[in-house]
Automatic annotation (TrEMBL):
This is histidine kinase. It comes from the Bacteria. InterPro entries: BphY/WalK/GraS-like (IPR050351), HAMP_dom (IPR003660), HATPase_C_sf (IPR036890), HATPase_dom (IPR003594), His_kinase_dom (IPR005467), HisK_dim/P_dom (IPR003661), HisK_dim/P_sf (IPR036097), Sig_transdc_His_kin-like_C (IPR004358). One of its GO terms (molecular function) is ATP binding. Residues 182-235 form the HAMP domain. Keywords: ATP-binding, Kinase, Membrane, Nucleotide-binding, Phosphoprotein, Transferase, Transmembrane, Transmembrane helix, Two-component regulatory system.
């Protein structure tokens, strides 16, 4: 069953049940209250008849006339009987055979509205001469005689009004529920169709809903954000595949051409030529290792071997291993390292960070190039800065410098042979230690990388 139909049926069912319950309870309570009111009015009327007959009896010199009794009985639609103290009948009205003057029209009204005819009841009150009781005044009536034609019409009108109101409310509820269900289901259908299109691969499909419901708008925005994220990931995946293919093709092509030259006899399999092949194999192995480490970046927090150690000493030792390499190329490394900074982190990952940064810097230094490394600490963090006076990075390339396989055009032109994975790996390691990495660079002047690592992880 469709959601719109289900919502409409549920709304209608709820409205119908509510109307039936409210109408039944309201009608029952109002009718009971009305009948109680009429019954009390009837008792008041009977008491008034007693009082008036007593007044008339006293005014007439303690005499009652048959004509007056008949007139009262006919006017009030009751049966009147007067007895002495010995229970002998003195006067009686002649309008009812002991049935309280119940008229034929009233009986027809009772039958028309399916109301029982009721029971004959007598009310007795004393007949007084002054303050002395001289007889009994008996008034006979039907217990539901208070249900006059006007009262019955009122009750029927009340019931009809409840019935008409219920029908009107049902139609109103039907229209309201239909509009409400459409206002809810149409945006949901749009979101569902967007999700279906995304499942089919159309990640550029957007959910455009016109609604004031905050939750549905948030759901629509979430679906659109998911589509954008998936589209970006798909583009990244395709770019990764292209870059991996490009990076692997170069050393493999070199290996193939050299081996073909040896097989064809153009090259002799001497030490120089084999060393060339070995360098290409090493380059290929490095690329594979970097690629593996790059894609394991999300798992670094699961394999970190954290220990407490002297960061200052470890940093100096790592830098010392690079000094001969820099000196050989005509470059130099200068340091300013604060002593005895203790940190809790993976010692090998710190070495890997510095290895990648120093290996990366040496590729982009000009003649007489220099790298300056500083380490300072405060209460909570250690701050490592690696600055060089190399070729720098163009401003347009800075937002992408930590992306996997990204290399700016100037680095490719320099034919450094880098894979574009070094800084991506460094960023992954830093973030795995809850740290922050930032880069500042000016093209033609140099680059500075700032790493902030918490002392206690």
């Amino acid at each position: 069953m469709k959601l719109s139909k289900k919502l409409t049926l549920n709304f209608i069912f709820s409205i119908l049940v509510s109307i039936i319950i409210i109408s039944f309870i309201s009608n029952l309570m109002i009718n009971n209250k009305f009948e109680n009111y009429l019954a009390e009015e009837q008792q008041s009327k009977l008491q008034k008849i007693c009082d008036e007959i007593n007044d008339l009896y006293n005014k007439n010199g303690y005499v009652l006339y048959q004509r007056e009794i008949n007139s009262y009985a006919s006017l009030e639609n009751v049966y009147i009987e007067i007895r002495d103290l010995n229970d002998n009948i003195l006067y009686t009205s002649n309008n009812g055979n002991g049935m309280g003057g119940m008229s034929g029209m009233h009986r027809r009204m009772m039958r028309m509205h399916n109301i029982p005819e009721g029971n004959y009841i007598e009310k007795s009150c004393p007949l007084l001469e002054g303050n002395d009781e001289v007889g009994k005044l008996i008034i006979g009536y039907i217990d539901n005689a208070y249900l006059t034609e006007s009262a019955i019409i009122f009750k029927d009108t009340l019931t009809k009004s409840f019935f008409i109101s219920a029908i009107f409310t049902i139609f109103l509820g039907l229209g309201t529920s239909t509009m409400l269900s459409k206002s809810l289901t149409n945006p949901l259908l749009e979101i569902r169709n967007t999700a279906v299109e995304m499942r089919k691969g159309n990640l550029n499909r957007k959910s455009n809903v016109n609604t004031s419901t905050v939750e549905i708008l948030e759901l629509s925005d979430s679906i659109n954000y998911l589509g954008e994220t998936l589209a970006k990931q798909e583009n990244i995946r395709k770019k990764y595949a292209s870059d991996i293919s490009h990076e692997l093709r170069t050393p493999l092509a070199t290996l193939k051409s050299h081996l073909e030259a040896i097989i064809d006899g153009i090259w002799e399999p001497n030490e120089d030529h084999l060393n060339i092949l070995m360098k290409e194999i090493d380059r290929l192995s490095t690329l594979v290792d970097d690629l593996k480490n790059s894609f394991r970046s999300e798992e670094l927090d699961l394999v970190l071997n954290k220990t407490r150690f002297n960061m200052s000493k470890e940093l100096r030792d790592t830098i010392t291993t690079f000094i001969p390499l820099y000196t050989k190329e005509g470059f130099c490394i200068e340091t300013s390292i604060e002593d005895n900074i203790e940190i809790t982190m993976d010692r090998d990952k710190l070495k890997q960070i510095m290895y990648n940064l120093l290996s990366n810097s040496i590729k982009y230094l000009n003649e007489g190039g220099k790298v300056f490394i500083t380490l300072i600490g405060n209460k909570d963090n250690s701050i490592i800065k690696v600055a060089d006076n190399g070729i720098g990075i163009e401003e347009k390339n800075l937002p992408f410098i930590f992306d996997r396989f990204y290399r700016s055009d100037n680095s490719r032109n320099k034919n450094t042979g880098g894979t574009g994975l070094g800084l991506s790996i460094v960023k992954s390691i830093v973030e795995a230690h809850n740290g922050i990495i930032d880069i500042k660079s000016k093209y033609g002047e140099g680059t500075e990388i700032i790493i902030i690592l918490p002392l206690n992880n």
